[in-house]
Amino acid sequence: MLPAVPAVRVTAVNQAPVRADGDYVLYWMIAHRRTRWHFGLQHAVAQAAALGKPLLVFEALRIGYRWASDRLHQFVVDGMHVNRARCAAAGVTCYSYLEPEAGAGSGLLAALAARAALVVTDEFPCFFLPRMVAAAGRTLPVRLVQVEGNGLLPLRAHDREFTVAHSFRRHFQKVAHPESLAFPVAEPLTWATPLGQAVIAPEILARWPALGTPAEARALIARLPIDHSVAPPPGVTGGSEAGEALATDFVARKLARYPEDRNAPEAQGGSGLSAYLHFGHVSAHAVVDAVLQRAGWHPGRLADTANGKRHGWWGLDEASEAFLDELITWREVGYAFSHRRPDDYDRYESLPPWALETLALHAQDPREHLYDLDTLAAGRTHDPLWNAAQGELVQTGRIHNYLRMLWGKKVLEWSPSPQEALARLIELNNRYALDGRNPNSYSGIFWVFGRFDRAWGPERPIYGKVRYMTSASTARKVPVKGYIARFQPR
To answer: Which residue numbers in the chain have pLDDT < 50?
Structure first.
């Protein structure tokens, strides 16, 4: 029997009825774009079985989101092809739709929901998705529920807002024991196969044609009214197959050297999973499971007390604990913040009071260098290391995690005000980064200005008590010459 999804992860969006006479249960895939290790899909399958209905998986991509580009569109569409193939292999109907022009997809969800017994979707605490789900809840004539599967700890298991990573880590260690954590099943579609295939009304397919072949989709993307100057990175493929392969390779080959290599730009020792986690192509639960399986872990290794320390609580080797701290603590503290601060997680005023105060005191400090947004985007500053970090972002859709911190700090230093620096970082990150528009990426940007950090001394011009970084000190800590040669903007 398919295990039930923990109730804390399931929320009703509206109070419309569940309709027993509906033709299918509709799973509206919007954030966790995968078919494996998936609480939302697991809940939809369980509800379909309880109602005796087939499952219809619906995944769409519209045009009118901010920063829409060839890069972001192609990465998502790559995943849509994988999801459609995996559903077909399981005998489950999957309807993938790529909006061909602005507004063309209007009415499609309502048309599908009109024949549904129940609609299930994903909960994601960032970007336009919460507003989109809320709007659907107000208009759909059938029950809409959202399922939250973003991290190991359910968002509603947080009892407060966390100001530093240590307090989140300690909270996690207090509550995240085996009896309070549940992982999604690895293959929820297995339980959907006996339910049969859902039938989509012919008039729906006629008005909103399903996604074509990969070649047809690429040709359509090239014609869309989106930003064609931000191209897909060479050699990068979106979707669960690519993300799962990357995770497997990291755990097998790179994890053992993670503490030594993760901060070395030329070693490229990170997991590279952030974009796949952002689009939901890979589940954080699946990655954690792979790490624990590699170590032969069992719950008896957990520490008896929660002390908030980075190492020792899991009872694992140093490399595994370091990686899990990044994947869980530093990722989920951002999700928790966005969930509890939905109206201002991306606004300057959400910074901690001490940071607002010290940045205000130094807002008028002289700046030796001032650059406009276009100069920054092109990587045409006086600083070769910063230019290379920006070059990596533009060329590959990511920045090495250690250099991302330096990248942000220098924009603070080179902007006319901290408010303008924040706006520039959000624009550059969300325009070019495959993992942008995510609670975790907002954590990284706002950390530059003091979020999840503490006051540092000595007090400095421009930065005040906010943590200070320089390219020279970074170059003394890690080798960067090869990195600069590789990513220096042409």
So the answer is: none
